[in-house]
């Protein structure tokens, strides 16, 4: 076998092994079915849903660190519980360990490429992006519209989601989005700051 073919075979074996290695978080405890690839081409990082993040925060997941990359004003207006704000300069000085899982938060889920580059060598066990950012948190955790559920198991899952929302001060509604039964406790807009303003007037900020 030639040297080039041997190197190619080795690369294939290593790539295949990596694909089945699973998450390093808690020895693979982060369920891959609930973690999607981040769609923004500027930062090739996995994404986590707001519901999953809320579950981790409520259960005080060891090593979880929520890093908010928004402006100081936006962070003061509304923050995810336990989040800490960092800008580009402080990211350079962020110290992590192999026990840490970093979740990066923006307004809409788009993370600057340089943020990912700053953190790749931080030593963290895993670096994730909050899917849809603060908007996703508001939609999934604080102001969710949940299906009615047609089976006992479905109703149990829905009630668990509703209980999670209420834990964080949310107001879950049962029904389909836009239906009269669902209601609109917080009007949906295309602007996260406007949604936060509605939320603060509702008393959840």
From TrEMBL:
UniProt keyword list: Signal, Transferase
InterPro entries, per the entry: Rhodanese-like_dom, Rhodanese-like_dom_sf
One Pfam family it belongs to: Rhodanese
Rhodanese domain span: 60-146
Domain of life: Bacteria
GO molecular function: transferase activity
Region (Disordered): 169-192
Signal peptide from the UniProt entry: 1-21
Official protein name in the record: Rhodanese-related sulfurtransferase
Taxonomic classification: Bacteria, Pseudomonadati, Pseudomonadota, Gammaproteobacteria, Lysobacterales
């Amino acid at each position: 076998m030639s040297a080039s073919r041997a190197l190619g075979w080795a690369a294939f074996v290593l790539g295949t092994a990596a694909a089945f290695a699973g998450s390093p978080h808690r020895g693979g405890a982060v369920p891959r079915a609930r973690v999607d690839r981040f769609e923004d081409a500027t930062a090739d990082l996995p994404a986590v849903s707001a519901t999953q993040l809320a579950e981790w925060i409520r259960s005080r997941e060891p090593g979880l660190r929520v890093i908010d990359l928004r402006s100081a004003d936006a962070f003061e207006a509304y923050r995810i519980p336990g989040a800490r704000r960092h800008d580009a300069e402080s990211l350079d000085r962020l110290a992590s360990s192999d026990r840490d899982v970093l979740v990066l938060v923006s307004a809409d889920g788009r993370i600057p490429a340089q943020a990912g580059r700053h953190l790749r060598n931080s030593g963290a066990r895993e670096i994730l992006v909050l899917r849809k950012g603060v908007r996703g948190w508001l939609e999934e955790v604080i102001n969710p519209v949940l299906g009615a559920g047609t089976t006992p198991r479905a109703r149990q899952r829905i009630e668990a989601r509703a209980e999670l929302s209420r834990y964080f001060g949310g107001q879950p509604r049962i029904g389909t989005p836009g239906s009269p039964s669902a209601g609109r406790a917080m009007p949906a807009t295309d602007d996260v700051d406007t949604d936060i303003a509605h939320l603060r007037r509702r008393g959840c900020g």
